[in-house]
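Dear colleagues,

For the upcoming journal club I promised to circulate an example of a predicted protein-ligand complex. I picked one with flavin mononucleotide because it came up in last month's discussion. The inputs are reproduced below in full, followed by the predicted structure.
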Amino acid sequence: MELSTFAADKLQHYRLLTSLIAPRPIALVSTVDAAGRGNLAPFSFFMMGGGNPLSLAFSPLNNRRGDEKQTLRNIEATGEFVVNVVTRAMAERVNQASGDYADDVDEFDVAPFTREPSARVRPSRVAESPAALECRLFQVVRHGAGAQAANYIIGEVVHVRVHDEALRADGLFDTAGQGLVGRMGRDEWVEVVPGAVFDLARPVIG
Ligand SMILES: Cc1cc2nc3c(=O)[nH]c(=O)nc-3n(C[C@H](O)[C@H](O)[C@H](O)COP(=O)(O)O)c2cc1C
Protein backbone atom coordinates (compact mmCIF):
# COMPACT_ATOMS: atom_id res chain seq x y z
CA MET A 1 0.00 0.00 0.00
CA GLU A 2 1.18 3.53 -0.73
CA LEU A 3 -0.59 6.70 0.31
CA SER A 4 0.06 10.28 -0.68
CA THR A 5 0.05 12.41 2.45
CA PHE A 6 -1.67 15.12 0.40
CA ALA A 7 -4.75 12.96 -0.25
CA ALA A 8 -7.99 14.09 1.31
CA ASP A 9 -8.65 11.64 4.14
CA LYS A 10 -6.58 13.31 6.89
CA LEU A 11 -8.25 11.40 9.72
CA GLN A 12 -7.53 8.02 8.12
CA HIS A 13 -3.89 9.06 7.61
CA TYR A 14 -3.64 10.17 11.22
CA ARG A 15 -5.04 6.83 12.36
CA LEU A 16 -2.65 4.99 10.03
CA LEU A 17 0.33 6.75 11.64
CA THR A 18 -0.86 5.95 15.17
CA SER A 19 -1.11 2.29 14.14
CA LEU A 20 2.45 2.17 12.83
CA ILE A 21 4.38 4.49 15.17
CA ALA A 22 3.96 2.07 18.04
CA PRO A 23 4.21 1.03 20.79
CA ARG A 24 4.27 4.49 22.37
CA PRO A 25 4.95 5.14 26.07
CA ILE A 26 2.25 7.09 27.89
CA ALA A 27 2.86 10.29 29.85
CA LEU A 28 0.10 10.90 32.38
CA VAL A 29 0.51 14.66 32.68
CA SER A 30 -0.55 16.63 35.75
CA THR A 31 -0.88 20.42 35.55
CA VAL A 32 -2.58 23.30 37.35
CA ASP A 33 -4.23 26.39 35.88
CA ALA A 34 -3.36 29.95 36.91
CA ALA A 35 -5.82 29.67 39.82
CA GLY A 36 -4.22 26.42 41.03
CA ARG A 37 -6.98 24.03 39.89
CA GLY A 38 -5.68 20.61 38.90
CA ASN A 39 -5.84 18.75 35.59
CA LEU A 40 -4.68 15.30 34.52
CA ALA A 41 -4.55 13.77 31.01
CA PRO A 42 -2.61 11.04 29.16
CA PHE A 43 -0.40 11.66 26.09
CA SER A 44 1.32 8.99 24.02
CA PHE A 45 2.97 11.36 21.54
CA PHE A 46 5.80 11.40 24.07
CA MET A 47 9.58 10.98 24.04
CA MET A 48 12.78 11.48 26.05
CA GLY A 49 14.73 14.42 24.65
CA GLY A 50 18.26 14.57 26.06
CA GLY A 51 20.50 14.32 29.09
CA ASN A 52 22.18 17.70 29.39
CA PRO A 53 19.91 19.04 30.68
CA LEU A 54 17.48 16.16 31.20
CA SER A 55 14.58 16.82 28.86
CA LEU A 56 11.45 15.30 27.35
CA ALA A 57 8.76 16.27 24.85
CA PHE A 58 5.12 15.44 24.26
CA SER A 59 2.41 16.80 21.99
CA PRO A 60 -1.14 17.73 22.99
CA LEU A 61 -2.77 18.22 19.60
CA ASN A 62 -5.43 20.82 18.94
CA ASN A 63 -8.78 19.13 19.55
CA ARG A 64 -11.44 18.37 16.91
CA ARG A 65 -12.77 21.93 17.17
CA GLY A 66 -9.25 23.29 16.55
CA ASP A 67 -8.88 24.50 20.15
CA GLU A 68 -5.81 23.99 22.34
CA LYS A 69 -6.18 21.38 25.09
CA GLN A 70 -6.20 22.38 28.74
CA THR A 71 -2.85 20.70 29.42
CA LEU A 72 -1.12 23.01 26.91
CA ARG A 73 -2.96 26.10 28.19
CA ASN A 74 -2.08 25.28 31.81
CA ILE A 75 1.60 24.67 31.04
CA GLU A 76 1.87 27.97 29.16
CA ALA A 77 0.16 29.73 32.09
CA THR A 78 2.31 28.20 34.85
CA GLY A 79 5.47 26.82 33.18
CA GLU A 80 5.21 23.54 35.12
CA PHE A 81 3.98 19.95 34.73
CA VAL A 82 4.52 16.42 36.05
CA VAL A 83 4.83 13.31 33.86
CA ASN A 84 3.67 10.17 35.68
CA VAL A 85 4.46 6.75 34.17
CA VAL A 86 1.51 4.42 33.55
CA THR A 87 1.15 0.78 34.65
CA ARG A 88 -1.46 -1.87 33.79
CA ALA A 89 -3.13 -1.34 37.19
CA MET A 90 -3.69 2.32 36.24
CA ALA A 91 -4.82 1.83 32.61
CA GLU A 92 -8.63 1.96 32.99
CA ARG A 93 -8.41 5.07 35.18
CA VAL A 94 -5.95 6.70 32.78
CA ASN A 95 -8.43 6.06 29.98
CA GLN A 96 -11.18 7.58 32.13
CA ALA A 97 -9.00 10.67 32.67
CA SER A 98 -8.76 11.18 28.88
CA GLY A 99 -12.43 12.17 28.56
CA ASP A 100 -13.31 15.61 27.18
CA TYR A 101 -14.25 17.14 30.56
CA ALA A 102 -14.98 20.79 31.27
CA ASP A 103 -12.01 22.89 32.40
CA ASP A 104 -13.22 23.05 36.01
CA VAL A 105 -13.22 19.23 36.33
CA ASP A 106 -10.08 17.80 37.94
CA GLU A 107 -9.50 14.34 36.42
CA PHE A 108 -7.73 13.30 39.66
CA ASP A 109 -11.29 13.10 41.07
CA VAL A 110 -13.04 11.42 38.12
CA ALA A 111 -10.35 8.77 37.38
CA PRO A 112 -9.85 8.62 40.40
CA PHE A 113 -6.18 8.98 41.40
CA THR A 114 -4.54 10.10 44.64
CA ARG A 115 -2.75 13.47 44.74
CA GLU A 116 0.77 13.49 46.18
CA PRO A 117 2.63 16.82 46.64
CA SER A 118 5.51 17.35 44.22
CA ALA A 119 8.96 18.39 45.44
CA ARG A 120 9.79 21.24 43.00
CA VAL A 121 6.62 22.15 41.07
CA ARG A 122 2.99 23.00 41.94
CA PRO A 123 1.09 20.24 40.04
CA SER A 124 0.56 17.09 42.12
CA ARG A 125 2.18 13.76 41.38
CA VAL A 126 -0.02 10.67 40.95
CA ALA A 127 0.59 8.55 44.07
CA GLU A 128 -0.39 5.31 42.26
CA SER A 129 2.33 5.79 39.61
CA PRO A 130 5.69 4.15 40.45
CA ALA A 131 7.63 7.10 39.00
CA ALA A 132 7.06 10.80 38.37
CA LEU A 133 9.13 13.39 36.49
CA GLU A 134 8.67 16.99 37.64
CA CYS A 135 9.26 19.36 34.74
CA ARG A 136 9.60 23.04 33.85
CA LEU A 137 8.61 24.29 30.41
CA PHE A 138 11.48 25.02 28.03
CA GLN A 139 9.58 25.73 24.82
CA VAL A 140 6.38 25.07 22.89
CA VAL A 141 6.79 24.41 19.16
CA ARG A 142 3.56 24.75 17.19
CA HIS A 143 3.28 22.92 13.87
CA GLY A 144 0.19 23.34 11.69
CA ALA A 145 -3.18 24.93 12.32
CA GLY A 146 -6.71 23.79 13.09
CA ALA A 147 -7.85 20.37 14.30
CA GLN A 148 -5.08 17.91 15.21
CA ALA A 149 -2.25 20.40 14.67
CA ALA A 150 0.79 19.52 16.81
CA ASN A 151 1.98 21.49 19.84
CA TYR A 152 5.32 20.07 20.95
CA ILE A 153 5.91 20.81 24.63
CA ILE A 154 9.59 20.53 25.51
CA GLY A 155 10.28 20.33 29.23
CA GLU A 156 13.32 20.14 31.49
CA VAL A 157 13.16 17.45 34.16
CA VAL A 158 13.93 19.16 37.48
CA HIS A 159 13.10 16.35 39.91
CA VAL A 160 12.53 12.58 39.70
CA ARG A 161 10.59 10.45 42.20
CA VAL A 162 10.70 6.64 42.02
CA HIS A 163 8.90 4.43 44.54
CA ASP A 164 11.49 2.39 46.47
CA GLU A 165 9.96 -0.96 45.42
CA ALA A 166 10.27 0.07 41.75
CA LEU A 167 14.03 0.62 42.02
CA ARG A 168 16.52 -2.13 41.14
CA ALA A 169 19.90 -2.63 42.85
CA ASP A 170 21.66 -0.69 40.05
CA GLY A 171 19.73 2.46 41.02
CA LEU A 172 17.61 2.38 37.87
CA PHE A 173 13.87 1.94 37.42
CA ASP A 174 12.53 -1.62 37.21
CA THR A 175 11.40 -1.02 33.62
CA ALA A 176 10.72 -4.69 32.87
CA GLY A 177 8.92 -5.52 36.11
CA GLN A 178 6.45 -2.70 36.75
CA GLY A 179 3.81 -3.61 34.15
CA LEU A 180 4.28 -0.44 32.13
CA VAL A 181 1.74 0.02 29.34
CA GLY A 182 1.86 1.78 25.98
CA ARG A 183 -0.50 2.73 23.17
CA MET A 184 -0.62 1.15 19.75
CA GLY A 185 -3.19 1.77 16.95
CA ARG A 186 -7.01 1.81 17.14
CA ASP A 187 -8.00 1.28 20.79
CA GLU A 188 -5.08 -1.11 21.38
CA TRP A 189 -2.80 -0.86 24.41
CA VAL A 190 0.21 -3.04 25.23
CA GLU A 191 1.64 -4.20 28.57
CA VAL A 192 5.32 -4.93 29.18
CA VAL A 193 5.51 -8.45 30.61
CA PRO A 194 8.82 -10.10 31.65
CA GLY A 195 8.68 -12.76 28.87
CA ALA A 196 8.53 -10.04 26.20
CA VAL A 197 11.73 -8.29 27.31
CA PHE A 198 15.13 -9.18 25.84
CA ASP A 199 18.64 -7.72 26.17
CA LEU A 200 21.09 -6.77 23.43
CA ALA A 201 24.53 -5.37 24.20
CA ARG A 202 25.50 -2.41 21.99
CA PRO A 203 28.12 -3.32 19.35
CA VAL A 204 31.73 -2.59 20.17
CA ILE A 205 33.45 -1.33 17.01
CA GLY A 206 37.22 -1.39 16.58
C1 LIG B 1 -3.53 6.54 26.33
C2 LIG B 1 -3.93 7.84 25.69
C3 LIG B 1 -2.97 8.59 25.02
C4 LIG B 1 -3.32 9.83 24.46
N1 LIG B 1 -2.34 10.54 23.81
C5 LIG B 1 -2.64 11.75 23.31
C6 LIG B 1 -1.62 12.54 22.67
O1 LIG B 1 -0.45 12.17 22.59
N2 LIG B 1 -1.96 13.77 22.20
C7 LIG B 1 -3.22 14.26 22.33
O2 LIG B 1 -3.49 15.38 21.90
N3 LIG B 1 -4.21 13.55 22.93
C8 LIG B 1 -3.94 12.33 23.44
N4 LIG B 1 -4.92 11.60 24.08
C9 LIG B 1 -6.22 12.25 24.32
C10 LIG B 1 -6.14 13.22 25.50
O3 LIG B 1 -5.80 12.52 26.69
C11 LIG B 1 -7.51 13.92 25.69
O4 LIG B 1 -7.74 14.76 24.58
C12 LIG B 1 -7.64 14.71 26.98
O5 LIG B 1 -8.99 15.09 27.15
C13 LIG B 1 -6.82 15.99 26.99
O6 LIG B 1 -7.06 16.61 28.24
P1 LIG B 1 -6.86 18.16 28.51
O7 LIG B 1 -7.79 18.93 27.59
O8 LIG B 1 -7.22 18.28 29.95
O9 LIG B 1 -5.42 18.49 28.23
C14 LIG B 1 -4.63 10.33 24.59
C15 LIG B 1 -5.61 9.55 25.24
C16 LIG B 1 -5.26 8.31 25.77
C17 LIG B 1 -6.31 7.48 26.47
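Two points we might discuss: The mean pLDDT is 96. The pocket of flavin mononucleotide is lined by residues 26, 39, 41-45, 59-61, 69-71, 95, 98, 100, 183 (CB under 6 Å).

See you all on Thursday,
B. R.
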